[in-house]
Design brief:
Helix 1 crosses helix 7 and helix 7 crosses helix 8. The radius of gyration is 26 Å and the shape is elongated. Strand 2, helix 2 and strand 3 form a beta-alpha-beta unit. The two termini are 46 Å apart. By secondary structure, the chain is α/β, with parallel strands linked by helices. Helix content is 36%, strand content 13%. Bound molecules: oxidized coenzyme A (CAO).
Amino acid sequence: MKALAGVKILDFTHVQSGPTCTQLLAWFGADVIKVERPGVGDITRGQLMDVPGADSLYFTMLNHNKRSITIDSKNKKGIEILERLVKTCDVLVENFAPGALDRMGLTWARIQELNPRMIYASVKGFGPGPYEDCKVYENVAQCTGGSASTTGFRDGPPLVTGAQIGDSGTGLHLALGIVTALYQRTHSGKGQRVTCAMQDGVLNLARVKLRDQQRLAHGPLTEYSQFGEGVPFGDATPRAGNDSGGGQPGRILKCKGWETDPNAYIYFITQAPVWEAICEVIGEPTWKTDPDFATPKARLPRLNQVFGRIEQWTMTKTKFEAMETLNTYDIPCGPILSMKEIAEDQSLRATGTVVEVDHPKRGKYLSVGNPIKMSDSPADVQRSPLLGEHTEEILASVLGYSADEIAELKRVGATAPLPK
Ligand code: CAO
């Protein structure tokens, strides 16, 4: 039995942030019923399409293990179905623009009236405040959550990161809120509202940068490369390139082949306990005792020199050769893996982190499986549903509609587009 078996999720999510949350819950065993607009569906079904006539990878990779029902929430009968779903489900998850559910008549007050045990979970761009009514996509959240201003190089513009920390990151936060609320309900018997703002989720992931903001008041950030370069600090946490912090400075260094391969690099950390081993590997044994290099503090103003010398060594090896050698000394490092290398990595396939999924319209494709491994609730990845694939099944088996009623709902446009 799966961890969340028996939990029914009314999944009113679209695009990325909400769907990542409900996909995780589905992998943990919840019955996730995805509500989509008849004839249209989640907008991502048709975005970034690569195979004509097949749901995009954007959609399929975010909606595994779910069932799809089409309901027009602006149709009177459609709202009736939704209300019956609210009565029977444990959790409602949504990430529409602020106010959209209220406009459907599904206010928090109405939801509590229908089902006091309901957990009502939402992703919004911002929490209460000046921006609460704004629509938000990934990069807006990265910019307003403090990530962009602290990402990139000092002499370049702010940068967004490829990891979807605004969308998927907030979906992950929301999933934790939901399972926590489910746990509290086992004592209280009551549902509750769970909200997660994308700005807040990003800031939570960028909290070390707010730490550094406050440290600035007490002097320069000595672990940042700009300290060693003699560049004065301003009044806000600066961008720090690929620096990693504290007594364990790190950088991305070139490896053999970097001239033609954009990913021939390795991340190298000069972890203090293995400094002597690093000196041996790179051929600088005197740095072990040289007072300019022997301690982390002494090295901080000389990081460019230190990493310049280490890079002379890494450039003589491929990233995988360097990784192998450094690992024999327990020196923390990691090759910069391209998505191609990750897609081909057999160990990620073996753990189910990268999975091959078969889809009736697009054939086989790769996806990312559940990154959270549970010994008693393993996730098996099942293809995403076709639009409305389970409409009749859900109406009949979850809500108890008869065949005639189901036909009537279709006829009045509650579950299918009306003929033009
Ligand atoms: N039947 C009929 N109408 C439906 C429906 C259904 N099954 N499902 C949704 N709709 C309607 C809603 O009622 C709403 O209509 P109204 O505006 O008239 O009330 C509309 O579709 C939803 O619109 P939206 O404003 O949420 O969609 P959008 O494409 O304009 O904006 C987004 C998208 C993501 C910017 C916005 O939803 C948002 O800000 N969400 C919160 C933050 C968020 O999750 N962002 C992450 C985006 S990427 O993961």
